[in-house]
Amino acid sequence: MLAFLGGAFISVEQPGSSCLFHLHIYSLLVRLGCIITRFCFCHYGSALMKPSKWLHNKPWLEELACRCTCAYQGRHFVAQGNFTQSSIQEFDARCRPSCQAVYGKMPTVGQSVASFSGAYPQALVTRMASGSMAAKLGELQRISESSRVRSLAELGLDDAVMDSHVLAAVEPFPPRKWFEDPDWVGELCQSLDFRECFRYRFKRSGHINVNESRTYKSWIKAMAKSQPNSRFVGLLDSRVTIGAAAKGRSSSFAISRVMQGSLGYILGSNLYPGCLHCRSQDNRADPPSRDRPVEPPTRDQPLWLIDLQAGKYERFDIVCAANSVPQIAARWLRFLLLLGGDIEPNPGPLQAPHAGRPRGPMDLSVGFAAATSDRMAKCYDAFMTWLRAEFPRSALQLMSSADTASFALRAYGLHCFQTGLPRYLFVYAITSVQDHHPHFRNCLSAAWQIDKKWQQHEPGECRAVLPAAAIRAALSVAACWGWFQWVGTVLLGFSAMLHPSEMISLCRKDLVLPRDTAFDSTSMFIHVRDPKTARFARRQHGRVDDQKIIAIVDRIFGPLPLTERLFAGSMSMFRRQWNAVMALLHIPHSQMSRGATPAVLRGSGATFLYHSSEDVQWVAWRGRWARHRTLEFYLQEVSAQLLVHELAPKAKQRLFYLDKISWAVLSSLLSLQSRTEEVK
């Protein structure tokens, strides 16, 4: 699923009779556009029928679908047993034209038929490989609508659910909450008087998790001998052992074997073991494992434990309620609850909600792009982790005041600079603190000063841009190679000044062509999904007035269904095609060499529009810049930095020639001759 959502090609193979694709994860992939293709090996010359079905999103596999039409229908060679001299001759006679031609090899006497049947016929593999190579070179077809409908029907799904946005309707699994050991477990370890039950040395070294599982098994054996028919609790500092013991199994084969060996003692002695996790520093069984005696109690028994032994649960209820929040705050909460009285054991019903529908908790991350919000959260967590490590007793107090928070961020910025961390970690930490504490916004000048000094130490540079001539030359090359989807996508990115993520995610319904408005407008509009500046304008659009660009885009994307993506490949495929075109033009295209990456299209379009009009406000409106001042600084820096004037003379000559013939090439290859005079 992750690979599919990332734009990669995927495939899952199953036998023809398998029901695995009815699982939710695979039915969801089919709803998102994958199809199921069935074929038989006998169709490609094999003596074995071996029906197989593939769930995939590879258009070149769609044409491999077939049924058994061979002369041995219902009487195929059976894949069981081992080959003998006579069965090899029979197998070879049934292969068309021969086993050597179909598989490239012959089975040997005594070889398992099942193992030999794992090989694919060479004709089938060749067709799969040629389709994959064609897709790599950009010759990508589309999966037919009939195959999608058939795949949905095979899984019992309605074709109405076939939507590229179906994931929005799927309720995600909630993230697992972070677990901290409650304080009362540590108080138990520190206040109880423990004694040593047994001690032994392992005969040979092993993995620490496996050895701790063996110790758990020894504990179970000891309890089976001394305390049968009982319930008991152990304190362990290994979460791996606790998890394996709770489930009775583990993904580790070695740990699973140990757990299997403990089942006989648990079932035979009617044991109900339980485990609590404690910190290693509180684990009283740790010193004996290092040849030291068991440590005595280091504190008196807490009041809640004394009351609990007497059958009074009020104090323990308060302790458990206080541990529902992080540790430092939990201790303060326990103190307040003890001062204020016990917890109401049977609280009354909640107040009835208002007449309208309940909205649920407000999402405070709204206003930022999903990637930006996620990056801010990670940088805030990194800052708080550093703060707790440097000031373990006063981290919360530091963040309770704007002045102390500002100096804490300032210290964090100096730490990031000194240790070689990237600057964005510090900047996102400041902005996330502002988002968590809005009243701090105007009081963080001390932290922003470090960011300003950092930029003076390590000034950044804007990418050099490509002139319109280089873009037209690139389009000529791509059109000659048949990469028309790439041509249309690059034209949209350049003319509408789009970010790479914005242009790759475009669908046909995001384009409003003149034909879509009955030619009431001669302009083309592009709806921008999830714009980078969504917090300033949630719904944004780009506009293109150039009639040549509109004619090309209309010819390439106009006939597509509304839900179809304009560029069928992934971002990595777009980047490979970009690199191939730039390499032919001898234009640097790596980020290390500050070359032309797909990200320069937005700046190149803005620079071209500025050179044509010198109207910065108009360029800012067309390019959806939130602040005119940012655009002014950008244009001042890049307007004279064009990659073309740094090229070799032969490369320039080739580029200028391709630029000169670009419209003729595009008109010829896209059958736009009838429109040429109209556009002129």
Identify the notable features of this structure and list them briefly:
three-stranded antiparallel beta sheet, 31 helices, 680 residues, mainly alpha, 6% strand
Describe this structure in a few short sentences:
By secondary structure, the chain is mainly α. 48% of the residues lie in helices and 6% in strands.
How would you portray this structure in words?
The chain is mainly alpha-helical and 680 residues long. It has 4 domains: 2-169, no CATH class; 193-296, no CATH class; 370-457, no CATH class; 468-679, Orthogonal Bundle (hpI Integrase, Chain A). Helices cover 48% and strands 6% of the residues. It is built from 31 helices and 8 strands. It has a 3-stranded antiparallel sheet with strand order 1-3-2. Helix 10 (208-226) crosses helix 11, helix 19 (423-436) packs antiparallel against helix 20 and helix 21 runs antiparallel to helix 22 (484-495). The chain is flat. The two termini are 48 Å apart.
Protein topology:
Elements: H1 2-5, E1 11-15, H2 24-31, E2 35-40, E3 51-56, H3 59-62, H4 85-94, H5 99-103, H6 113-116, H7 122-136, H8 145-154, H9 183-191, H10 208-226, E4 231-236, H11 239-247, H12 253-268, E5 272-277, H13 303-309, H14 314-322, H15 327-340, H16 370-390, H17 395-398, H18 402-419, H19 423-436, H20 445-457, H21 468-480, H22 484-495, H23 500-504, E6 511-512, E7 524-528, E8 540-544, H24 547-557, H25 571-584, H26 600-613, H27 616-623, H28 628-638, H29 649-660, H30 662-669, H31 673-679
Parallel strand pairs: 4-5
Antiparallel strand pairs: 1-3, 2-3, 6-7, 7-8
Helix pairs in contact: 10-11, 10-12, 13-14, 14-15, 16-19, 18-19, 18-20, 19-20, 21-22, 21-29, 21-30, 22-24, 22-26, 26-27
